[in-house]
Amino acid sequence: MADRSLLKERLQRAAQVTAPARRLDDVVRRARVLRWRRAGATALVAGVVTAAFVASLSALGGLGANHGRGTADGRVGAIGFDQAEGWNMAASDPGSPEWPPTIWVTNVPFAEADVRGGHMEDGVLRLEIGPEATTAHLPTDGILISAQIVYVSRNPLPPSDTFAPAVLPLRLPDSPPETSWEGSIQGQSVHSVGATVNGRRVVVGIRYGSEQPAQAMLSEAQAELGRLFVDPAPPAIDDIDQFGLSMAVPDGWDGRLFAWTSGPPTLELSTLPLEGPSGDPAIPNRGRLGTQDVSIVLAENDTIDLGFPSTTLPLSIREQDRCDCEVLDDGSIPPDGHALYHRSFETMGRSFDLYVEFGSSPSSAVWDHANQALAAIEVGSASVGAVA
Prior knowledge:
This protein is an alpha+beta fold. The protein has helices at about 1-15, 45-55, 110-115, 130-135, 215-225, 365-375; strands at about 80, 90, 105, 120, 125, 145-150, 150, 190-195, 200-210, 230, 240, 245, 255-260, 265-270, 295-300, 340-345, 350-360, 380. A hairpin with a 5-residue loop joins strand 13 and strand 14 (about 265-270). Helix 1 (about 1-15) packs parallel to helix 2.
């Protein structure tokens, strides 16, 4: 399903920080934009793992004996693992307060090459890139586990086939671990689990130093997985106010603001209820838009030095923005009869792609209705707000 395919992509992109691997069907960027799309259902496994490993473990300076768990109770964020003898822990140093840290645990010492260059913060080993050396030299009895929250939003979670509701403790998949994926290492294998837990979408990747881990090794991994905790998410709200974006959603519109895997945020608006996930195509409700309906996507673009034209708010679309083009490189064009408008711009030092799709050639009233909604969008600092 589209949900699975999007998710896997977005997670893989996160995994690409150092050595790409596929990540969960619903999360990395469409070719040119954001950090949000790329990979498939099975990639959930590999991507998640590699992504998580890759995203942080090379900055492990000051680990000393390499056996510590950091804080007294091992809790450094909304997701993590309770302490256990014989397991070492590290956490990412998120680039934005919007994102909880990613946590890594391993039953072997982190490689010295990964340890160098890191730093300690509040008694916790903080990482910036991935544990390439630890991953590359994982012994045959070694296990490396990553856990992360992959979707952040203050708005209600949309339905997702990929992130089925689950309760702790999570269980390893019944199927054998994957042995072949983009960026795979000969002799290693990976399990991954994606689920909605306590109102949060989480991904856990389990990497084994063996292609066919023995039952004792699987049992050890399951025991550590059983120590996973996920703090309940704050109550969802309908307000659009996060990631330095805000608006009072006008009457007759539905909206949500979200980001996948530490990537840039995306704002979706529609005159129809946003009931399902974004999916392919990227325009929400595309297949349901009637002649008087409109859907809007405003996606921040994190590519450096794009040179987009500087724009002063309020936002609007113009006749010259008409475009029979893809939306966020989703591989599709508007259906016959639809009218799509695309505008790239820079404001407040941030770059964005704006897409507005009408179910038919818009009347002046429908056109004004869309521009009135756009005018309500405010753009501020990207670092505003924090997520527990």
